[in-house]
Amino acid sequence: MSASNDLYDVVVIGGGAAGLNAALVLARARRRVVVVDAGEPRNAPAAHMHGFLSRDGMPPKELLEAGRAEVAGYGGEFVADGVVSVTPGFSVALSSGRVLSTRRILVATGLRDRLPDIPGLRERWGDDVMQCPYCHGYEVRDQAVGVIAVTPESATHHAQLVRQWAADLTLFTNDVDVPAEERERLAARGIKVVDGKVARVVVEDDRVRGVELADGAAVPRDALFVGGDWEPRDALLRSLGCEVADGWVRVDGQGRTSVPGVSAAGNVVDQKATVIAAAAQGAMAAIAINGDLVAEDVERAARERRVYGM
């Protein structure tokens, strides 16, 4: 590995689809790039990913392995480590004690799903308990499906969305308030509403079998979706003073944050980005970063020519 005081063009923090695609574009642009990854991908529990052209159904782990191999083939470097802090300049301090110096930062650390504290739910997460219907709805099509409400804002929207894949659909309110007008809209599409606190997810033979309520009633279900509630892993971006709006760090159309030299891509700044969308955001951010570096290189070369008559 390189010495701790070596200068990189770009340090990419996070080795998911966004970070790896950014690193691929930058390495192909002949930039010195290193990917720092703690090895905690959001979709690790999922057996397959979907909606990615030419990669539909591929296990997420295989996509990351292929991506790392491609980046390494162009000279990109990897460090399996966590990031403790980033200071302007930029210095990236790692958990191991190593410090990386870099001209630019790209943060692609993703988000974490905040799951309700319901016994049995987390254990089945990524199997037959899911969040994204675009990622997994087709696989449970025409089955008996349930949606467990998490927030008032997402509850009915999520149920109406999942209805596209399953006619036998039940919304478990889990004590979330569902207004009368929303109940009417749910009924119009044949979506049943079950009130009351969810006590547990019933699991038998390594499969979801239903939902049990606090009053002991049980509703058979084959699969469950949990309405979205997310937490971006953006502590590094916030520590650098990046502008935040509505709970998320703001970026422009090319991934630039409000702090010069700091970019971000993927779920850390966009909760709705699927794998292919996150990869595309990483590519766009990398192109913008390289453009900024080219402009900086030009100015440096022109300045040196004036000073030294080169």
From TrEMBL:
<dbReference type="InterPro" id="IPR036188">
    <property type="entry name" value="FAD/NAD-bd_sf"/>
</dbReference>
<protein>
    <submittedName>
        <fullName>Thioredoxin reductase</fullName>
    </submittedName>
</protein>
<dbReference type="InterPro" id="IPR050097">
    <property type="entry name" value="Ferredoxin-NADP_redctase_2"/>
</dbReference>
<dbReference type="InterPro" id="IPR023753">
    <property type="entry name" value="FAD/NAD-binding_dom"/>
</dbReference>
<dbReference type="GO" id="GO:0004791">
    <property type="term" value="F:thioredoxin-disulfide reductase (NADPH) activity"/>
</dbReference>
<keyword id="KW-0560">Oxidoreductase</keyword>
<feature type="domain" description="FAD/NAD(P)-binding">
    <location>
        <begin position="8"/>
        <end position="282"/>
    </location>
</feature>
<keyword id="KW-0285">Flavoprotein</keyword>
<dbReference type="Pfam" id="PF07992">
    <property type="entry name" value="Pyr_redox_2"/>
</dbReference>
